[in-house]
Amino acid sequence: MSIITLTTDIGQQDYLVAAVKGQLYSVSENLTIVDVSHQLSSFNYPQAAYFCCSAFHYFPSGTFHIVLVNMFDQKPKQMLLAYHNKQYIACADNGLLTMIIDGAPERVVALPLPEGERPTTLTCTQVIANALWQILAGKDLDYIGESDITIVEKLRLKYVNSPTTMEGQILYIDNFENVIVNITKADFDRERNGRNFKIVFKRDEVIDTISETYACVPQGEKVAFFNSSGYLEIAINKGNAAGLFGLQGFSEAMQKQSISLQNKWFYQTVKIFFE
């Protein structure tokens, strides 16, 4: 039984997710397809990378991960198939691959799209399905695609630091309106170096303790802890942190807009002061 994960920004309002699964089952009925998410924010590379790197870590060797996010940032000519940490990742050549694995993949090949065909979502995913069939048949990556390639590379969204501060961006707001920030426990421990700290957001909201769970503070109180993926999370015990404080997820589009929108930046960032 082969495991396939599917992560997209397609949503589930139409037929596309079902059609993609149909393409995969047409390759082999002996598959287990796991939906990671189909509700990722459009054009949000940092959020997609956070979802994928957090989820993929838990799957067994040989899992085949398909990531369909921002497929048409540019007119696609090829899809990518990578092998990294004993797992396969198939996605568009748009920089997301290097964000997911935080660097260059161990091996990667290009899967050219058919000449003369319109590059629709299902054209792209059929190319991935064909590559899956060859993987299941025991074919090597170099047989399946072109290895002498240059791929688009993007870096993960990184926090900004100074000798006395860290400034992170809000990667994701979950279903409970808890806020996940792009600062890991390893980042925090390294920058803190044993010093006292205070976490500040929305200019004047302060937390000066890292807790273990939501329940470490009274109901209705704000709390900070590192979640199961190791990222800083800000929440309210049995409340909605993002809604109450007006916090927003990071947006690359917003970052590129005019300085007149600079005030909105305060609602997308979290700052940590050390002393």
From TrEMBL:
Name one matching Pfam family. Answer: SAM_HAT_N
**Annotated S-adenosyl-l-methionine hydroxide adenosyltransferase C-terminal domain residues:** 168-248
Q: Does the keyword Protein biosynthesis apply?
A: no
Output the InterPro entries linked to this UniProt entry: SAM_HAT_C, SAM_HAT_N, SAM_OH_AdoTrfase, SAM_OH_AdoTrfase_C_sf, SAM_OH_AdoTrfase_N_sf
| Sorted UniProt keywords | S-adenosyl-L-methionine
Q: Which residues form the S-adenosyl-l-methionine hydroxide adenosyltransferase N-terminal domain?
A: 4-145
Signal sequence segment? none
What family classification does the UniProt entry report for this protein?
Answer: Belongs to the SAM hydrolase / SAM-dependent halogenase family.
Official protein name in the record: SAM-dependent chlorinase/fluorinase
Organism of derivation: Segetibacter aerophilus
